[in-house]
Amino acid sequence: MTQHLRLLREATVDVPELAADRLALVRRTRREVTDLLATEGFFSPEVRLDRSEQGRWLLTVEPGERARIDAVDIQFEGELAHNEADTAFRDALRQAWGLGVGQPFRQADWDRAKQQLLDSVSRKRFAAARYAATRAEVDAEAARVRLALVVDSGPVFRLGELQVSGLRHLPLDLVERYRRSNPGDEYDRDALLAFQSELQSAPQFASVIVDIDRNPMRASATPIRVQVSEAQSRRLGFGAGLSSNTGYRVEASYRDVNLLDQAWELSTALRLEQRRQSLFADVFLPLERARHRDSFGVLFDRSDLEGLKVSSQAIGATRTTIRGDIETQLGLRLQHEALRPDGADPSSQNTLTANWGWVQRAVDDVLDPRRGYVLEVQVGGGASVALAEQDFVRVYARYQHYLPVAERDVLILRTEAGATLAPSRDGIPQDFLFRTGGAQSVRGYAYQSLGVKEGEATVGGRYLATASVEYVRWFAPDWGSAFFIDAGDAADSRESYRLRTGYGVGGRWRSPAGPLAIDLAWSHEDQRLRLHFGVAVAF
Questions:
Q1: Vertex 404, ends 398 and 409: CA angle to 5°?
Q2: SS3 for 118?
Q3: How far apart are CA 66 and CA 31, in angstroms?
Q4: Residues 137-183 pLDDT 10s
Q5: Using CB atoms within 10 A as the burial measure, which of 85, 148, 331, 507 is most buried?
Q6: What contacts 211, CB < 8 A, 6 or more positions away?
Q7: Cα separation, 241 vs 107, whole angstroms
Q8: Are the C-beta atoms of residues 409 and 483 closer than 8 Å to each other?
Q9: Is the dihedral of CA 121, 125, 126, 128 positive or negative?
Q10: For residues 212-227, average pLDDT
Q11: How many CA atoms lie within 13 A of 216 on its CB side?
Q12: Residue 3 confidence (pLDDT)
């Protein structure tokens, strides 16, 4: 029962005792109460206004029986009515009608059901659908309502050319690259909304509006109107941070989303960390109609982790394809790598490698996941006929599952495994071998400390396996605690693999960049506590 039906109770109201206005007040009150009850399906109420005492009136309302739907008649006009192929569609529309026989009649439900029916007709093909007539016949005495509707679908709309406005510096064909439909395709509102969403996510645009010309006279080739506002092209940024893996960090970045006025995206940054320094520049080409996006770039990287100093320079090219929540990458990279492990001989090699990656992020929120999973698979390698010292193939898989518990909490299960198939690890780049330990890995152990001992350093091995169970308890909207157990190791053979475990507690804060994690972990083998920092997003 809605707030409106609180009038069913007797109430007293104060009114000014003006004899000249008394009759008009009574009439207006009766009319307003009757109209109000009619919106809730009460069409035969009894409304009484009696003067009970000096200066006061008593309003008594008996709403009577609420009217119910007695019959529903839905008819169609336009092309939808005459096409035999649409018989099943017409039946489905009638079946999905939201105000069926026997249900109480309410004006709000009647309006909602009409809008839902029209939306269902106009969602695909019939962009100019409208109501030719709607009628609700009320039998107040019998408390019954008969509904009748006539939907005029109009003609089938087919898509025509793009009409783009708002471009000033970007190339004219940029919007066309994001278009998935072809001229002559039938109108589909969901597809146009997806088109608008993709354009809006492109870094070159600040805002995007996509619509069509709904004039039935242009239904055979209705133009798609795209109104855009260009985003700021260049941006310079500076940042600082702290990581338990690589220490303090400062960085400077530069981004240009319209490089050479070709809508190429340049992204470059210099990052200086205590234990790692890198400089990179990547150029991303505009999206292709085949849904590919190509990029190429250069990288200079140096690191000093667990006694292993690595210096590498690389150039490469990548093709990325995104379909829904699935992203695939195919890359080719030429790199030079120099290794200097403490207590062992240095080495260097040039390697040409290829890598294929597939990842599905089926989560409810990438920045703050609570339900769903992330599945990633990688396959890559090199060959002795193309610079590598030996043939090798690296396979890797990672699975992370999020299970909601109670109203706020979440259980996180994670596992990963990898193997580099080769006679030995000699001459294989460290990126194609495995080390583990640290935040978002096996906590309780130093970053990249689990691997193969070479001299006094820890280097990558050919095998990896880790697992983790974590329970996050949110005791406030933005604050929570975590309890976890991690286990795993990286080794150069299955015989030398030793399961290392770590467990502990942590704190969580929902920051704008995602939940920040601060964990205090105990390493079972090292018998010591370590503090870890990380961002708990669905990476």
A1: 110
A2: helix
A3: 18
A4: 988 888 899 999 999 999 999 999 999 999 999 998 899 888 888 89
A5: 331
A6: 192, 224, 225
A7: 57
A8: no
A9: positive
A10: 93
A11: 12
A12: 47
Task: Work out whether strand 144-152 and strand 68-77 pair parallel, antiparallel, or are unpaired.
Answer: parallel
HEC profile of 291-360 = CEEEEEEEEEEEEEECCEEEEEEEEEEEEEEEECCEEEEEEEEEEEEEEEECCCCCEEEEEEEEEEEEEE
Residue 270's pLDDT is 96
Which pLDDT tens digit goes with each residue over 373-390?
Answer: 999 999 999 998 888 888
Of all helices (H) and strands (E), which one includes residue 235?
strand 234-243
Spatial separation of the C-alpha atoms in residues 377 and 397, rounded to whole Å: 4
Residues 355-368 pLDDT 10s: 999 999 999 988 88
The total of other beta-carbon atoms located within 10 Å of residue 275's CB is 17
Using CB atoms within 10 Å of the CB of residue 418, give its burial: 0 to 12 exposed, 13 to 18 middle, 19+ buried.
buried
Quick check: 477 pLDDT over 80? yes
Q: What pLDDT shows up at residue 503?
A: 95
Tell whether the torsion through CA atoms of 231, 237, 240 and 246 is positive or negative: positive
Distance CA 65, CA 45 (A): 8
pLDDT higher than 60, residue 5 = no
For strands 463-476 and 457-459, give the pairing.
unpaired
Q: Are 513 and 367 in contact (CB under 8 A)?
A: yes
CA distances in angstroms from 420 to 89, 409, 495, listed in the order given: 54, 37, 15
The whole-angstrom separation of Cα 144 and Cα 69 is 6
Tokens representing 371 are: 């339900």
Q: What pLDDT, in 10s, does the model give residues 441-471?
A: 999 999 999 999 999 999 999 999 999 999 9
Rounded-to-integer distance, Cα 380 and Cα 359, Å: 15
pLDDT for the residue numbered 536: 61
Give the SS3 label for residue 252: strand
| pLDDT given for residue 26 in this prediction | 66
Do 144 and 43 contact (CB within 8 A), yes or no?
A: no
The model's pTM: 0.77
The answer to whether 506 and 481 are in contact (CB under 8 A) is yes
pLDDT single digits (tens) 27-67 = 777 777 777 877 787 877 777 767 666 667 777 777 778 88
pLDDT of residue 216: 92
What pLDDT, on a 0 to 100 scale, did the predictor assign at position 14?
45
Contacts of range 137-140, beta carbons closer than 8 Å, 24 or more positions apart: 138/43, 138/67, 139/67, 139/70, 140/43, 140/44, 140/67
User: What tokens appear for 455 in the block?
Assistant: 């001299």
Length of the chain: 539
**C-alpha distances out from residue 440 to 145, 266, 443, 538, Å:** 63, 29, 7, 11
The angle at the Cα of 410, spanning 507 to 405, to the nearest 5 degrees, equals: 135
Q: Where are the beta strands (DSSP E) in 443-498?
A: 452-454, 457-459, 463-476, 479-491
- Other CB atoms within 10 A of residue 299 CB: 16
